[in-house]
Design brief:
Blueprint: E1 2-7, E2 10-13, E3 18-26, E4 31-39, E5 46-52, E6 57-59, E7 67-72, E8 77-82, E9 91-99, E10 104-107, E11 111-116
Parallel strand pairs: 2-11
Antiparallel strand pairs: 1-3, 3-8, 4-5, 4-9, 5-6, 7-8, 9-10, 9-11
Length: 117
């Protein structure tokens, strides 16, 4: 069983910063990639950023230049530094991991990020 534990969400004013953390534990091996997705009320879940085991990153256009994803492979952890936050960044942020030869996918329970104007 794989567990993803997220932390770091909260309420921040527009222009502020937050740092999300996610650690994977349990019967997990050969992580292929980790990432962050978000879902705002009434909208579909969307990719925010992802990072492969080799360090390649991918960002949604809406967060490029403001958000930075990073990993600690030894800890099976992924981080999302969010700067210059905007009200439209308000959403539940979910940690995601892809692992194993069969590319299993697991999700965290989500952490709320609210940006006030």
């Amino acid at each position: 069983q794989v567990q993803l534990v997220e932390s770091g969400g909260g309420l921040v004013q527009a222009g502020g910063s937050l740092r999300l953390s996610c650690a994977a534990s349990g019967s997990i091996f050969s992580i292929v990639a980790m990432g962050w997705y978000r879902q705002a009320p009434g909208k579909q879940r969307e990719l925010v950023a992802s990072i492969t085991n080799g360090g390649s990153t991918n960002y949604a256009d809406s967060v490029k230049g403001r958000f930075t994803i990073s990993r600690d492979n030894a800890k099976n952890a992924v981080y999302l530094q969010m700067n210059s936050l905007k009200p439209e960044d308000t959403a539940v942020y979910y940690c995601n991991v892809v692992w194993g030869n069969n590319r299993y996918t697991d999700w965290g329970r989500g952490t709320q990020v609210t940006v006030s104007s």
